[in-house]
Design a protein that fits this description.
single chain, Immunoglobulin-like, five-stranded mixed sheet, 46% strand, disordered C terminus, binds 2-acetamido-2-deoxy-beta-D-glucopyranose
C-alpha cells in the first residue's frame, strides 16, 4: 500500500476525497523543511462512523507503522512520553475529535528525516496505524531549477524553490550574483503541491555568452534568526560560435611554412574548419584549429576561411593569403622571322607575385617595358633590318629576376654598302662590292664595256667572303685598264636586286708600298708622262658611256693613275669567255699557267688567284 501511495500520490489524493474508506488517512507523502526551522504536517484521518468512540487518541511513529517494532514515538496524545529526540519539539495542532491529526515538529535537525506514521486510538481494539505516511526531508539548501537549455538571447527564468511549511517562520528569499545579468527581474510566488507549500522566487534575465559559467545564488533567511541557507547554480548558456582570434590577411614568401590559427568561443564546442575557396582543408571539434601549410607554393595563394559551427549558429572569417614569388622564366611566344616592312608583334610573358616588371632589351637598351604586368608586347609597325638581332626579355620583382633571349630575324633585300669601290693600282684593279642582305645575296660584277659578267664562281677573278649578313666580293683585274671601263656591282636575293656602279679610287699608298722608295721616283716620272694620256682619254670616254647605267649616281671614273689606254679594246671580241678579261688586256701571268684557264675544271686555288700581288704585267 505504502509503495502504491508513493508511486501515485496524485491518484491517491483524488481517491481520498471521494472514496474515503472507513479507515483511511490523508497527509502529504513528501514534505520538506529547513534544518532549525519547523514543519507542520497536515493530517486528517477517518474511522467507521458506527464506532462512536468516547475519546479519540493518536500516536505519531517515526519510520515504522508497527508498535511491535517499538518505533520512536514522535507524539502521543494519551501521555507525554515521547522519544528523546522529539522531546519538547512536537505539538499536535489538529483536534483529534475533528479527525485532524496535523503535527508540528520544531527545531528540526537532520536525523529527523524519515517517514512519519499516524496511529488512531479509539479505545479497546480500535487502534489502527494508517499506512499513509509522510516522508519528511530536512534540507539545508534551496533548490534552484533552471530550464533544460539556456540559449543566449532568449529570456530565461531560473527559480529558487523554498519549502514554506512552518507557519511560525516565513522564509525570505533573495538572489545573489545576479545584478549584472541583462534585463534581470525577480518576483516571488507561492506554490502549493499536495498541501505542502513552497515559496518560489523567479529570476528572469536575458542570458549572454559572458554569463556562461556564472554562479548564481539563492539565499534563504528568516526574520529574527541567524539561519541562512544558500544554494548556487552554474549557468550553462548555449551560444553560437564566435571567432575570437584569427590571422588577418598576410603576404608570405613561397617556400616558407605558414601557420594559420582560428580560435573560437562557443557552447557547445564548435566544429571548426579551414577552407581555401570552397575546399575544406582541415576540420575538427574544439576551441581552436591550426592549419599548417608547409613549403607554401603559389598554387596555395587564395582566400582562406575559418568556419565555426554548432547547433546554435555559424560564423566565418576570411583572410587573403598572398604567396609572393620571383618571376618565372619569361616566355616569348615564338622566335620571329619577318620580312622587312612587315608589322611584327612579339609577346613576352612571365608570372610572379607581385606582378613583374618586364623589360625587353636590345643591345643593353630597353626597347619596351611593362610595369606590374604579366606581359609586354614589342611591336613594329614596319620592321626594319636594323631591328634584326638578339633581344632579351627580363622579368623582375623584388624577389628575383629571370630572362629569356630571343632572336628577331628580319629578311631584307640587298643594300650595297659604302665601302664598295674600285681601287686602281699600278697594274691591277681591285673592286670591292659589299652588300648586306638576308638571306645572303649573290654578287655579280658587270663590265658593260666588255660585255662581261662575272660572279664568285669565277674564282679566278672573284673572291667572296661572308660576315654576318654582309657579303664582300672582290674582283681583281690585272693589267692595263681602258678608260671606258666601268664596273657595276649587282647584289641579288629573293627580295630584290640592287645595282651600283663602283667608283674608282686611286691607291697611292698601295702603289708606293709596292714599288718601294726607288721605284717611287721612277713612278713619279711616269706619272707626269701619263698626264698627257689622261687628257686624251677623257674625250674618248665620254663617247663610250653606256646609257643603261646612266641612272647610277656615280658617273664613270676618269682615270688619273698610271694606266695606259688600251688601244685595241674596242676591236676585241666580247662575250662570256673570261679569257677576254685577260688576253685582250694584254696581261700575262707569272705564276699561273695561263693555258689552263680555258678549261674551267683546272682552276687553281681561289686564294692564290685572289692574291693579286702575284700577278705581273708582261
Ligand atoms: C486541522 O488543524 C489545523 C491546525 O489547527 C488547521 O489549520 C487545519 O485547517 C485543520 N484541518 C482541517 C481539515 O480542518
Ligand atoms: C522580529 O522581532 C521584532 C522585534 O523583536 C518583532 O517586532 C517582529 O515581529 C519579529 N518578527 C518576526 C517575524 O517574528
Ligand atoms: C597566425 O596567427 C598565429 C597566432 O597568432 C601566429 O602564430 C602565426 O604566425 C600567424 N600566421 C601568419 C602567417 O601570420
Ligand atoms: C619545397 O617545394 C619545392 C618544390 O616542390 C621543393 O623543390 C623543395 O625541396 C621543397 N622544400 C622543402 C624544404 O621541402
Ligand atoms: C561566411 O559568412 C557570410 C555571411 O555570413 C556568408 O555569405 C558566406 O557564405 C560564409 N562563407 C562560408 C565559406 O561559409
Ligand atoms: C605573339 O603574340 C601576339 C599576341 O598574342 C600575337 O599578336 C603575335 O602574332 C604573336 N607572334 C607570333 C610570332 O606568334
Ligand atoms: C641568336 O642568334 C645568335 C647568332 O646567330 C646566336 O648566337 C644566338 O644563340 C641566338 N639566340 C637565340 C636565343 O636563339
Ligand atoms: C654584247 O653582246 C650581245 C650579245 O651577246 C650583243 O648583242 C651586244 O651588242 C654586245 N655589246 C657590245 C657593246 O658589244
Ligand atoms: C655565276 O656566273 C655563271 C656564269 O658566268 C652562272 O652560270 C652562274 O649561275 C652564276 N652564279 C650565280 C650565283 O648567279
Amino acid at each position: 500500500m505504502a509503495l502504491f501511495h508513493k508511486a501515485f500520490p496524485i491518484f491517491w489524493m483524488l481517491l481520498e476525497g471521494v472514496l474515503a474508506g472507513p479507515w483511511s488517512a490523508w497527509m502529504p507523502s513528501e514534505i520538506s523543511a529547513f534544518e532549525g526551522t519547523c514543519v507542520v504536517i497536515p493530517c486528517r484521518f477517518s474511522y467507521p462512523d458506527e464506532l462512536r468512540p468516547s475519546a479519540v487518541h493518536g500516536i505519531w511513529y517515526f519510520n515504522s507503522p508497527y508498535p511491535k517494532n517499538y518505533p520512536p514515538v514522535v507524539y502521543k496524545s494519551r501521555t507525554n512520553i515521547v522519544h528523546e529526540s522529539y522531546m519538547g519539539r512536537t505539538r499536535l495542532l489538529g483536534d483529534l475529535i475533528f479527525r485532524n491529526c496535523t503535527l508540528q515538529i520544531s527545531r528540526l535537525s537532520p536525523e529527523l528525516t524519515g517517514k512519519y506514521y499516524f496511529r488512531g486510538d479509539l479505545g479497546g481494539y480500535n487502534q489502527y496505524t494508517y499506512p499513509e505516511h509522510s516522508n519528511l526531508k530536512i534540507i539545508n539548501k534551496p533548490t534552484i531549477v533552471t530550464p533544460q537549455e539556456v540559449v543566449e538571447g532568449s529570456e530565461v527564468e531560473v527559480s529558487c524553490v523554498v519549502p514554506d511549511n512552518c507557519p511560525e517562520m516565513k522564509p525570505i528569499v533573495s538572489w545573489m550574483n545576479h545584478d549584472d545579468l541583462a534585463e534581470n527581474s525577480v518576483y516571488g510566488q507561492v506554490k502549493e503541491n499536495g498541501s505542502t507549500w513552497a515559496l518560489v522566487s523567479m529570476l528572469k534575465f536575458l542570458p549572454s555568452r559572458e554569463n556562461n559559467g556564472r554562479e548564481v545564488g539563492c539565499k534563504v533567511t528568516y526574520a529574527n534568526t541567524t539561519f541562512e541557507f544558500d544554494g548556487f547554480t552554474t549557468l550553462d548558456i548555449k551560444y553560437m560560435p564566435r571567432i575570437t582570434q584569427v590571422n588577418s590577411s598576410v603576404e608570405v614568401i613561397q617556400g616558407t611554412d605558414v601557420v594559420l590559427v582560428c580560435s573560437v568561443d562557443s557552447n557547445p564546442m564548435a566544429v571548426i574548419s579551414w577552407l581555401r575557396e570552397e575546399d575544406v582543408l582541415h576540420e575538427d571539434v574544439g576551441g581552436n584549429l591550426t592549419l599548417h601549410l608547409d613549403n607554401i607554393t603559389y598554387l596555395e595563394d587564395g582566400i582562406y576561411t575559418c568556419v565555426a559551427e554548432n547547433i546554435h549558429g555559424k560564423e566565418n572569417h576570411s583572410l587573403a593569403l598572398a604567396v609572393m614569388y620571383a618571376p618565372w622564366k619569361p616566355v616569348v611566344n615564338v622566335s620571329v622571322v619577318a620580312v622587312e616592312g612587315e608589322p611584327v608583334s612579339i609577346l613576352c610573358s612571365s608570372q610572379s607575385n607581385p606582378e613583374p616588371t618586364i623589360t625587353i632589351y636590345k643591345d643593353k637598351k630597353a626597347v619596351t617595358m611593362g610595369v606590374y604586368q604579366n606581359q609586354v608586347t614589342l611591336e613594329f609597325a614596319s620592321v626594319s633590318h636594323e631591328d634584326d638581332g638578339e633581344y632579351c626579355c627580363i622579368a623582375e620583382n623584388q624577389f628575383g629576376q629571370r630572362s629569356t633571349a630571343f632572336n628577331l630575324t628580319v629578311e631584307f633585300p640587298p643594300i650595297i654598302l659604302q665601302e664598295s669601290k674600285c681601287t686602281a693600282a699600278r697594274d691591277t684593279v681591285q673592286c670591292i662590292c659589299a652588300a648586306k642582305s638576308n638571306p645572303e645575296s649573290v654578287i655579280t660584277f658587270e663590265l658593260p664595256t666588255r660585255n662581261v659578267t662575272v660572279n664568285e664562281t669565277d674564282r679566278e677573278f672573284v673572291y667572296s667572303q661572308k660576315n654576318g649578313y654582309t657579303i664582300t666580293s672582290i674582283l681583281t683585274l690585272r693589267g692595263e685598264v681602258d678608260s671606258q671601263l666601268y664596273i657595276v656591282c649587282s647584289a641579288r636575293n629573293l627580295y630584290g636586286t640592287k645595282n651600283q656602279q663602283l667608283q674608282f679610287h686611286h691607291s697611292n699608298s698601295l702603289m708606293w708600298a709596292k714599288v718601294g722608295p726607288v721605284g717611287a721616283v721612277v713612278a713619279f716620272a711616269i706619272l707626269i708622262a701619263v698626264v698627257c694620256y689622261v687628257s686624251q682619254t677623257r674625250k674618248k670616254k665620254n663617247m663610250n658611256e653606256s646609257s643603261s647605267f646612266m641612272q647610277t649616281e656615280n658617273p664613270p671614273v676618269v682615270f688619273s693613275g698610271d694606266y695606259r689606254t688600251p688601244g685595241n679594246l674596242e676591236k676585241s671580241e666580247y662575250g662570256r669567255d673570261k679569257r677576254l678579261l685577260t688576253k685582250d688586256l694584254g696581261i700575262d701571268y707569272a705564276n699561273i699557267d695561263f693555258t689552263k684557264l680555258s678549261t674551267k675544271d683546272s682552276y687553281t686555288l681561289t686564294e692564290e688567284l685572289a692574291e693579286y700581288a702575284e700577278i705581273r704585267v708582261k
